[in-house]
Design goal:
Mean pLDDT: 94
Oligomer: single chain
Low-confidence stretches: 224-230
Shape: globular
Largest sheet: 9 strands, mixed
Number of helices: 5
Number of strands: 9
Radius of gyration: 16 Å
């Protein structure tokens, strides 16, 4: 039985980050380190039940705007509710703005960001493969996304893993509890979101690569050859 693969989707219908090629390359390499093939695509036609059924995880890499067809939305929702996995990276928080299910997946929506600047990430929960390799206080440069609400307010199984320390940069809107990295279950599926990853050079750093590798590890660890969680 073939090993389920990782589908890296990079379509944009709004702002397009210069970091997408570097991110796609890094995620392909990380998937291969985990023994999985990866496909990079911007073709919305790949979101079919048959293609998604071969996926251990789908990555939305800084996707912006409406990037799925109605048929793709239906197939993607069924995939996730049936046991699929989603890794949403950075500007993926600004994707599918008029699809209520996608807002449910993330538990919030993108609400702007200040200028790119140094700051600090506070890792609160290191009992997760994506945050276990990180320092408790991680000095980093990024866009420091703000959100329309706190994802925990959406209910369900949201688990916030890391916060932004708003005292270390300008333009935060959440105060002391500024969500930055979180995960959740959705029916039988799994969702992981990280707001990090704005700059192309970020994807060459060992610390961000360890973060993303851990996210992929968590999302794909229990998949069988049909891309479904056991």
């Amino acid at each position: 039985m073939p090993t389920a693969d990782v589908l890296i989707y990079t379509r944009t219908a709004g702002y397009r980050h210069d970091s997408i090629p570097a991110g796609a390359t890094a995620l392909t390499e990380l998937a291969q380190e985990l023994g999985r093939a990866a496909e990079i695509t911007e073709d919305p036609a790949v979101f079919t039940p048959e293609r998604l059924g071969r996926c251990a995880a789908v990555v939305l890499l800084s996707t912006t705007g409406n990037v799925l067809t109605p048929e793709g939305r239906t197939a993607f929702e069924a995939y996730l509710r049936g046991g699929g996995s989603l890794l949403a990276v950075h500007a993926a928080a600004n994707a599918e703005p008029d699809w209520p299910f996608y807002g449910e997946l993330l538990g919030t929506r993108f609400d702007g960001h200040p200028e790119v600047q140094p700051g600090a990430v506070l890792v609160d929960d290191r009992d997760h493969p994506a945050t276990a390799p990180l320092p408790e206080r991680w000095l980093w440069t990024d866009e420091w996304y703000n959100f329309t609400s706190h994802p925990r307010d959406s209910g369900g199984s949201v688990r916030v893993l890391a916060r932004a320390d708003e005292t270390t940069y300008r333009g935060g809107t959440h105060g002391a509890d500024h969500p930055l990295v979180w995960c959740r279950g959705i029916d039988r599926g799994r969702v992981f979101f990280t707001a990090l990853g704005h700059a192309p050079e970020a994807y060459g750093t060992p610390v961000l690569r360890a973060h993303l590798r851990g996210a992929l590890t968590w999302l794909t660890a229990d998949h069988d050859g049909n891309g479904r969680l056991r």
